[in-house]
Specification:
Layout lengths: L1 H21 L11 E12 L12 E12 L6 E15 L2 E6 L2 E6 L6 E17 L9 E20 L5 E5 L7 E11 L2 E8 L8 E2 L2 E2 L3 E11 L1
Antiparallel strand pairs: 1-2, 1-13, 2-3, 3-6, 4-5, 6-7, 7-8, 7-9, 9-10, 10-13, 11-12
Length: about 220
């Protein structure tokens, strides 16, 4: 019963949004409050020297972001929002946690080494676009910063003994991270880049080398009114 009510509420909200925008006249002050959905290819960068390039990895995110218009034409604004993000990495860094101590190493004998995380997202953007109060298809360039709060994380790998070892909510994984964002494109289809500025681990070392691993994502982001 709850699920149909949620869908009906969402449909009502979207319908009201369109109805309100359709009543605007050219030159009226307006805002583009939007839902977003992104699908990106993801990689670790600045990996420690014993670690080679990660295998295929990806990220998904979705949320709501709200405009605050800075000019009457509506072409420049700042925006803030909240969303959810999921990361999946097939990587080469072996992560274990024993007696509340995180241990990092490189082990070429590992067959599969996976990392997943669930995050709350808080994007902040400066936006430029060619839209008007009655023009819904337009060019856009949105640049900003996105803060991430980690809800949960899990590292797992297949040991040579054919056992799968899992370590959840690793203590050295940084709960709060942030990075620069850039979205650009036309209408619903836009390229999207996230350039992480914070290392994902705190006080991590491997063979005496500090681990400064960060996240890079690039792919597509879709905006819906």
């Amino acid at each position: 019963m709850k699920t149909p009510l949620i869908y009906l509420s969402l449909l009502f909200y979207v319908s009201i949004s369109f109805a309100q925008k359709d009543t605007l006249q050219l030159g009226d002050r307006y805002a583009d409050d939007q839902f977003y959905l992104s699908i990106t290819y993801a990689q670790f960068y600045q990996q420690p020297s014993p670690i080679f390039k990660s295998n295929f990895s990806y990220s998904l995110s979705a949320g709501l972001i709200k405009d605050l218009i800075l000019n009457k034409q509506g072409t420049i604004s700042v925006a803030g929002g909240v969303g959810y993000g999921f990361d999946f990495f097939n990587h080469k860094l072996k992560v274990e946690e024993l007696n509340n101590v995180t241990i990092f190493s490189s082990d070429p004998s590992i067959k599969e080494n996976l990392f997943t995380s669930h995050n709350l997202e808080f994007p902040l953007e400066l936006r430029w676009r060619t839209s008007t109060a009655q023009k819904y298809d337009f060019w856009r360039v949105y640049a900003g910063i996105k803060f991430l709060y980690n809800i949960s994380n899990k590292f797992q790998f297949d040991a040579p003994s054919n056992r799968t070892l899992k370590y959840e909510n690793v203590l050295s994984y940084k709960k709060i991270q942030y990075g620069l964002t850039l979205s650009a494109g036309y209408d619903a289809f836009n390229i999207n880049v996230f350039y992480g500025l914070t290392p994902i681990f705190e006080n991590g070392t491997i063979n005496g080398e500090e681990i400064r691993t960060k996240v890079l994502k690039f792919g597509l982001i879709f905006y819906f009114l």
